[in-house]
Amino acid sequence: MSTTTATQIRHRRHTSLSSSRPRILCQTFTHSIEALDLPTSATLASVRLLILDYLADLEKRLTESKEDSWARAGLDMLHAIRADVAAYLPELSFDLDNMPDVRAHLPELPDVRSHLPDIDFTLSRMRSRLEDAMPDMSVDLARFEFSAHRPLSYIPQLVRRLESLHAHIAVPPRAALVDAITNLSRELVEKGRHRMDEAEGAAREVREAAREVRDAIRRSFNGSKLIRYADLPDAWRNNEFVRGGYRFIPLERWPLILLSLFALHNETLNIHTHLIPFLFWLPSLIRSIPHMLLSSVPHPSAMDTPELAFTSFALLCLFCSAVWHTMAGCAHPKGMELCARVDYVGIGWLIAASVGTVVHYGFRAHPALSTLFLGFSCVMGIIGSVAPFQAWFNAREHKRWRIAFFVALALSAVAPLAAMAAVYSVGAMGRFIAPVFPSIASYLAGLVFYATHVPECFVRSERAARWLDWVGGGSHAIWHVFIVLAIWQHRQAMGVLKEGIGWVGGVSG
């Protein structure tokens, strides 16, 4: 490339960069709005991958070209475009699970070339083919500019620089090369169009969610007033049978969220049915810890290790539940959803701890089996901690799958009970586990209320509906009461379980 041409390219590069300052197209949202995820970065990452892969194929062909000066000039332009793409467009994130096969959908240049006739085209025909492809690329890539974000503001400049590159490569008398590049360009445009259609749909959803949050905050007078179910954004809607009494408090007004612990709303009973038992049982846990750590002689009122572990996980479950129902009225989407998922984690560890106590007392005479099934219970608890953070888990339409998941965790107790029956006998195992049946019955009874939304689904009178709006008291509060009852019953059963499984076949449990 001559000195004049290189100077013109550098001048054009500097000019385009200086004119691509992002424009502010919308007002700044509140903290609650800013917390919403913008999925545009995923689309830009996939476009980045497509362009870089395309440039790599083009670089390979230019490197093989015998037109040295022409190829060097093209490579200089290509390297400049690649550097800008790497700087402006985001890198591929590991959560883009549909991207590893993008490269597989792009044709290999040798394959493309094999289908081309081995003839030379005239310069005018070669230019016309390239010019036919470029308007579509310009129009479709220009659709990226629907946001004020810096990567998107770079797209028009990228279009211009690709046009300059293609104008350059149209010069040499290599019709097959130009035709192959043009075909790759068309496929790039098609894939870019598909990605942008997805991005535009996601952007519409985000804008709609942001509008719903703004409207709900406005109706709640910035968190000072209770609103109705119909006023809530979709992500906050969990029980359509409770029609009013909802808080919607921006996170920046967090003192108001804490004060709502002592206010009347439809989560009041949901909070305190678990917060009060947590505060009631916490002192006994605190008193037992020093005795376990410092004293070699067990204190009559102190808990043993299984009781201490179960009580700790039970209190964790109650505390996480109280936190979630307090934060259910927070207008910050990520904060609200995080607390909901943490609540599920507490439930998972309560189930794992319940199974673990049965394993510990049932296999005291068999340390190997005890270690095996205690490890199994621990794995179940870990699974119960990981699964709630999957994207689908907290969706309202997946409530039945959540219930099935926690029932499956509870059914993990079948394995140690079967081993216990094999080591001792079915009758001995049944007598040993009998004290736990009342707590199991309480869990199942509460689960029925939780799954069916009884009694609020039958409420027709305005007076009863106002009671639910005022303090709660619906199916979820009843479910909470049964959870607390089941925890108390299991703690009572542990006093019997610690005596062991008995003397069966000469083996003491």
TrEMBL record:
Location in the cell: Membrane
UniProt keyword list: Membrane, Metal-binding, Transmembrane, Transmembrane helix, Zinc
InterPro entries per record: AdipoR/HlyIII-related
One MF annotation (Gene Ontology) recorded for this entry: signaling receptor activity
Binding site for Zn(2+): 325, 476, 480
Superkingdom: Eukaryota
Pfam families (alphabetical): HlyIII (PF03006)
Organism: Neolentinus lepideus HHB14362 ss-1
GO annotation, biological process: intracellular zinc ion homeostasis
Stated name of the protein: HlyIII-domain-containing protein
PANTHER family tied to this protein: ADIPOR-LIKE RECEPTOR IZH3-RELATED, ADIPOR/PROGESTIN RECEPTOR-RELATED
Topology in the lipid bilayer: Multi-pass membrane protein
Transmembrane segments: 308-330, 342-363, 369-391, 403-426, 432-455, 467-488
